[in-house]
Each structure stands twice: as structure tokens, then as C-alpha cells.
Amino acid sequence: MPLNPQKMKSYLQEVDFEKIKVRFDAFWQREVIDRPLISIKAPRKNARQPDELMLEEYTLLIIKAPRKNAKQPDFPIPDSLEKRWTDLDYILTKMRFSLENTLFLGDAIPFCWPNIGPDSFTAYLGGDLKFLDEHTSWVEAFVRDISEYEPFFDKNNKWWKFMSDLIDAVCEVAKDNFLVGIPDLHGGGDSLAAARGPSNLALDLYDKPDEVKRVMKRLTEIYYEVFNSYYEKISKVQEGSITWVPTYSRGKFTALQNDFSGLVSPEMFREFFLYETEELSRHLDNSIYHLDGPSSLGNLDFLLEIDTLDGIQWIPGAGSKPMAEWVDVCSKILDAGKCLQINCRPAEVEFLLKELKPEGLFISTHCATEQEAYALLKKVEKISSL
């Protein structure tokens, strides 16, 4: 049975959303109203939680610290992997499950984002979307020769039609209850790497540089079209934008990214991929670039020179040092006049607030319990009052 919008609880009423909007307005201006932005999430007391293997499928509102002997969801789970990605009733029920069992404190905003994986953009161009498990999907390379590749966005494409239906279904139950996030968009270099294969694209950068630039320009044009379609649908039920980077803007906002660029030299990044970020950041009202892992740090100086790019999300990457050991990178971003969004462990928050300038800073963290979350928020407010 589809969810009845009239029976959906308003999770936005449980947070001071108007005050949060004002804080984000200040964030984009590199200003502070009363304290730096901080998103604190935790499992609600007595929350029903999925087991650890199912956590990642609960959108970005996932509970990061599952308790032992946690109760399992009491709704049926489809018997095939593809259905778990495409059954609208199942997806909506999971979204509500996550919202019901998550505590939102500070500047955490209740939201859900329609999602079929990072390669969804490439799937709209003809890629065959595959599912490994409930939180991993990808597109198999399908372009044999970049010289023959003419990216075409077909609105009759199976995956585009599904995403359109998914966004509509989420929007139907979201109005005044929670925000709908812009789906993950890996265009440009990441899309080309998915379509061509990363190793083949790396060779193309040397062998057919003009063809890479040609395709990149066309992919940027398609990005506009896809984003605007997303934004138009979501704007019917809410003001502003949010995405998997949990930053709110009253206008057009999404996270820009190119994970493939971490595999090439900074000079190649500037030659082939910087153009896309420059163009897209001009198109958006607000933008944050997702900088993922130490291998991407060579590109940071070029990104900081883009006047229309508001900020950077710095992610050290799996297996790297904790955020508290990246103060030099964080300070460099803030000192360049850019916003900074980072994720860290609760125990690191106090140190980071003392070491980093508050203007333009946004910290996100997950606590294990409600008690820990409330205590952390109280500590943040105390630090800000000094």
C-alpha cells in the first residue's frame, strides 16, 4: 500500500527550521549568527533500528551506531535485489522508518533523497545499471571509442523514467513533512569514466584530448538539463535545495564532484575537468565541491580560485587520518574565503571548533545515543558563547 501523505508525520516541525535557514544564509555569506553550523544526528531513544548490513540503504538519514540486539524493521523486504532499489512502496517505507528513528539536533534537517546510485546520470545516457547489494550500484562501461561517443539524454530511458516516478512519489509525501534532496549527480569526468572505463579514459587524455574536451562540454550541457528537471519537480513542494551533502540553500544548490580527477595530475585536472566546475557553479545559486581523499588535494588550489564556487566538502577518505589531523587543509579552505563542510566523530567536534574559524564552517556528526547528542549540542553552544 502506498503511503498516505495525510498520515505522514511532520518531522520539520520537530526542528527550528526557520532558524536553521537563517544560519545557512549566514553560512553562505561566511558569517555566523550565534554559533557555527553543526548537524548532530543520533538514534532516537528506544528506536527500532536495522542491523548493520542494512544501514547504508536508509538514505543519508542512516543511524551510524546500531545497538546490539536492535529490533528489525517490521515491514516486508522484497525478495530480489533490483526490487529493493525500485519498489516505490519499499523505498518510501524505509524513508519513513529512518525519519521516525532519527533524532535531529542543531542544524540537522530531516530530509530524504531519491537515489539509485552515483552512476544514475550515466544510466540516463544508455548505461546498464547493475546492483551489487542494497547500497552499491554502478554502470558497466559501454563506450568503445570516445571519438564515436555522442552523449544523448533520452527522457524515455528506463532509469530516467524510474527516477522521475521516484521523485514524484517522495515529493507527494514530503510536503511540509521533510525536505527532498537533489539526487546524487556524477556528471562530467565521473560519467565519462563510467561510460568509457577509468583506464580507457586515462589513455584518452593522452591519445585523444580534443575528444575528451568535446564530450565533457556535452556532458556539462546535459548536467544542466538533468539538474533543472530535478529542481523543477522538487520546487513544487518546498523552497530551496539540499542534497547528500546536507547543506541547505534557499535557491539552486547541489554538490559538484569529480572523483576520477583524483587519479590524474593537477595539470590534467585543470586542462580537462576544471571547466565543468566553473560552468556549473555559475549556473547554481550555491555550490560545494566534494573533494574526496588525499589524492585529490593537488586540485584544491585550482578549485579555490573559482570565484563562483562557494565551498568545499573535504572527505579524507577511507583509512585516512581522522578529521582532527586535517586542520591544515580545513584552515586553508576557510582562509581562502570558502565555506567548509566536514564530517567528524563526536569526540573531535570540540577540538575542531577551537582550531577552525567559525565563519563558513559546517560540521556534521553522528552520536550513538540521544544523551550523547544533547550533551554535545550543549557543549557546542557553551564554546560558542565564550
Task: Provide the descriptors you would attach to this structure in a database record.
alpha/beta, two-stranded parallel ribbon, 13 helices, globular
Explain the overall architecture:
The chain has one domain (5-385): TIM Barrel. With 386 residues, the protein is of the alpha/beta class. β4 (129-133) and β5 form a beta hairpin. The strands form three sheets. A seven-stranded mixed sheet has the order 2-1-11-10-9-8-7. The chain is built from 13 helices and eleven strands. It is globular and about 60 Å long. The longest helix is centred in the middle third of the chain and has 26 residues, at 209-234.
Structural class: alpha/beta
Low-pLDDT stretches? 50-69
Q: Specify the number of helices.
A: 13
Major pleated sheet: 7 strands, mixed
> Which radius of gyration do the C-alpha atoms yield?
21 Å
The CATH topology is: TIM Barrel
CATH C-level: Alpha Beta
- Shape verdict: globular
Average pLDDT rating: 92
Secondary-structure element order, as H and E?
Answer: HEHHEEHEEHEHHHEHEHEHEHEH
What is the distance, rounded to the nearest whole angstrom, between the alpha carbons of the first and last residues? Answer: 52 Å
For the record, the CATH architecture stands as Alpha-Beta Barrel
Tally of distinct domains: 1
Per DSSP E runs of 2 or more residues, the count of β-strands stands at 11
- As a percent range, the share of helical residues equals 25-40%
Going across the biggest sheet, name each strand in turn.
Answer: 2-1-11-10-9-8-7
In what range is the share of β-strand residues? 5-15%
